[in-house]
Design brief:
The protein has 456 residues and is an alpha+beta fold. The chain folds into three domains: 106 residues; 129 residues, no CATH class; 159 residues. Helices cover 60% and strands 14% of the residues. It is built from ten helices and 13 strands. The strands form five sheets. It has a four-stranded antiparallel beta sheet with strand order 5-6-7-8. Helix 2 runs parallel beside helix 5 and helix 4 runs antiparallel to helix 5. The protein starts with a helix and ends with a helix.
């Protein structure tokens, strides 16, 4: 009877092991499309055998554990590359918007407006001077000023959109940090009695993956199953204690830094690569640089046109500035010229045939009033357009390259941790056969018990 009990015990252990395998396989199949899910694998081991005089008799199988199939090195690398991708992508998106505002190198409205403005002066300068063309000079100047204002307003709108996105991402980051702290709490409770909370760990990893898109993070796993989340050298999550970011940030000599409050005091956290850093640098570098360069172009236009036009004379005016303002936001045409275009000067004298001022203003398209060593207004503007286009091209290349890197890592992660329905289908058949075979062993032992009992 003792021998039959041992065989029955072995059969039951095989039955339970097959059932665990079937349950885990079914769980894998059910979560094949669940984001962040890692394939689970049942670990089996042979039970300690029964030692007999003639040798060892096996006592069946036991389930050691059910573990997640995961490569932590690949996962960490994927998070780093995702951070860089979203950093590049945000900068590329901002440059795309700037290009849309300015136009392309070959088709830009502001450049066309400048050309028409200088061409109108050239037309006015052609002898005999047609004073009716002064209205065209004022009209093309109004178009040019309007384009400067429209670009300025569009850049203002882009800055506001980026700022809204920054605040939204800081909020998202804080919510996900809190979620990691809550997951730590649940995992510590679930694993207090031993075993692994695989599904909870998957959920936590998925949240950390989403955080890594906003800002590059590193993690430190504790023995109690909790994970400390570190951002730019500062621990933001320790077990279930979470430090949140404030919506304030500032630029320092080390880069853009968010503010946190610890022990009642403000502290700075330098941003690591990610979507948030990309947004901040886009707003405060790309947009700012374009605005500064456009302001320089507008200031040069105002300065050089006014310097020449102020030397002009008409029968009723002396030395009027053509523009007012100092940059593209404040540039305007002198109201006196708008109200009376006859005040537009063509020469340095009131002689109707004097075209020296008109010619000099038309030549500003080809030569700066400050001399041949100074870039012209149009050259400075074209340099700005080319710079934006070149930078956009560079970031497009980096985004495309980074997309390939991330896609490659995701493919490798899927091959390690992803669920293969074909493989799980084969496992179902294997465990079903094991279950049936174990049941056959048990039914055989039961028949042997009956035979023995009938003999009594």
């Amino acid at each position: 009877m003792a021998g039959l009990n041992s065989i029955m015990d072995s059969g039951l252990s095989a039955l339970f092991a097959a059932r665990a395998g079937l349950a885990t396989t079914g769980h894998n199949i059910a979560n094949a499309n669940t984001p962040g899910y890692s394939r689970q694998l049942v670990q089996f081991s042979a039970r300690r055998p029964q030692i007999m005089a003639y040798g060892s008799i096996g006592r069946g199988v036991e389930v050691q554990s059910i573990r997640r199939v995961q490569d932590q090195y690949l996962l960490n690398n994927l998070r780093i590359q995702q951070s860089r991708l979203h950093n590049f992508a945000q900068t590329d998106a901002a440059l795309y918007e700037i290009e849309a505002i300015l136009g392309s190198v070959d088709n830009d409205h502001l450049g066309s407006a400048m050309t028409k403005f200088f061409d109108s002066w050239n037309a006015l300068a052609q002898p005999p001077i047609n004073t009716n063309l002064k209205a065209n000079v004022v009209s093309t100047a109004q178009t040019l000023v309007r384009d400067f204002h429209n670009i300025n307003n569009s850049l203002d709108g882009l800055e506001k959109e980026i700022e809204s996105a920054i605040q939204a991402e800081i909020g998202n980051l804080n919510r996900m940090l809190q979620a990691v702290g809550e997951m730590n709490k649940q995992i510590m409770g679930a694993e207090a009695g031993g075993g692994m909370a695989n599904d909870l760990r998957d959920q936590r990893d998925h949240i950390i993956n989403q955080i890594s898109k906003i800002a590059e993070v590193s993690i430190l796993e504790r023995e109690d199953g909790s994970t400390d989340l570190i951002l730019a050298g500062r621990t933001m999550v320790a077990r279930n204690v979470v430090t949140e970011f404030e919506t304030a940030y500032r630029q320092t000599s080390h880069g853009f830094e968010l503010m946190v409050v610890t022990s009642g005091h403000q502290a700075e956290v330098k941003l690591s690569p990610g979507k948030l850093q990309g947004l901040l640098t886009s707003r405060d570098q790309q947009v700012r640089d374009v605005r500064e360069n456009l302001n320089k172009v507008a200031a040069q236009l105002i300065e050089e046109v006014n310097a020449l036009h102020s030397q002009g004379r008409t029968s009723t005016s002396n030395g009027l500035p053509f523009f007012t303002g100092t940059d593209m936001h404040t540039i305007e045409i002198n109201n006196a010229l708008v109200n009376n275009n006859s005040l537009v000067a063509t020469g340095r004298t009131s002689d109707l045939g004097d075209n020296t001022i008109a010619l000099a203003l038309a030549n500003l398209a080809e030569m700066s009033a400050n001399g041949p060593d100074t870039k012209t207004i149009t050259e400075n503007y074209r340099a700005l357009l080319v710079g934006v286009a070149s930078e956009r091209s560079s970031f497009q290349f980096m985004v495309e390259n980074q997309l390939n890197v991330v896609a490659s890592l995701e493919t490798r992660m899927a091959s390690v941790s992803g669920v293969s329905l074909d493989e799980e289908g084969a496992n179902l058949v294997r465990y079903q056969n094991s279950y049936n075979a174990a049941a056959k062993v048990i039914s055989t032992v039961q028949a042997m018990y009956d035979t023995l009992l009938n003999m009594v």
